[in-house]
Every structure is written in structure tokens, then in C-alpha cells.
Amino acid sequence: MGFDGIAETKKDPYILNETVTNRITDFDKLLSDTTTIPKEWQDSDYAKNRLFDNGRLPLILVHGWDGTVGLITRETRRDPTKLLLWENSEYNYWHNFLSYYLSSKKLQEKYHIYLYRYPSYKHISYNAKIFYELLNEVPLDTDLGKMVKS
């Protein structure tokens, strides 16, 4: 599993660490990917002037990818390639909250948003183990890494 950091060659530099089915995403870095995010997020003041890692409290939004009623069908169930589509993503699931966050200077100054996605059909102890491993591989120079290592 290993952490590659935010390498220039990595396809999605906003994903801090991932396995095939589990991932931690830095929302600040996700906002840099204009091909992935909605136009309303691209146009937000926060997207244009992100705070990045400056000592804010990490807030991790957790969502299992078998948990979205209506999004997971027989065709997409347990198929990570289909689950990478926007309509099946954790970004879409948390869309309302993330849009609210982008409109609130107070929240932005206090919290650094991360998203964790996991396969909810797997046992909770398995997902907890993978989450723990991914957290321990997050770089120390990020708000999340500083919190995990303290």
C-alpha cells in the first residue's frame, strides 16, 4: 500500500492515500482539479484562495461506498471503476455539506476537510485497520498528518 506523496506523476494528487477501494482525499487539493469538481466549487472564493495546511483542525467526512441509497446498483456494486464516477463519489454524497463549507469563512478558517471512503460491505474491523494504516501514512506536513502524529 505505500504513500507516494503528492508526486507530479500521480494522476490524482488530491488523494492523499488509497488502496483499491479505500481512500483519503484532501478537499483543498481536490479543488485544484477543475475537471473533477462542479463549476460552483471552482468559482468559490475559497477555491481561488485556499488555506492549505496552516494548522486548522482536520475534519474527516466518512462515507462507505455501499451506503448511498439509489447510487449503488447491481452493475456498480463492488466495482471500483464504476464507483469513481462523480455520481457515485463521496464528493457527490457530501455535496451539500461541502457547498455549505465553501460558503462559510468561519468553517474554512477552523477546519481542513478530508474525505475517507471505504467499502461498507467489508467488515468494520477490516475497514478500521485500513483506515488506521492510511492515516499513519499521511505526510507529516499536512494538517491531518500533524494531528495523527501528535
TL;DR?
This protein is α+β, with helices and mostly antiparallel strands. The protein has helices at residues 27-30, 39-42, 45-48, 80-83, 90-93, 95-103, 105-110, 124-136, 143-149; strands at residues 15-18, 23-26, 57-64, 111-118.
Structure description:
The chain has about 150 residues and is an alpha+beta fold. It has one domain. Helix content is about 35%, strand content about 15%. It is built from 9 helices and 4 strands; from the N terminus they run ββαααβααααβαα. It has a 4-stranded mixed sheet with strand order 1-2-4-3. The chain is globular. About 25% of the residues are buried.
Number of domains: 1
For the largest beta-sheet, the strand count, sense and barrel status come to: 4 strands, mixed
Q: Give the proportion of residues in helices.
A: 25-40%
The residue ranges in which pLDDT falls below 50 over 5 or more consecutive positions are 1-11
What are the key terms here?
150 residues; alpha+beta; 4-stranded mixed β-sheet; 9 helices; 16% strand; disordered N terminus
Write the layout of secondary structure elements.
Blueprint: E1 15-18, E2 23-26, H1 27-30, H2 39-42, H3 45-48, E3 57-64, H4 80-83, H5 90-93, H6 95-103, H7 105-110, E4 111-118, H8 124-136, H9 143-149
Parallel strand pairs: 3-4
Antiparallel strand pairs: 1-2, 2-4
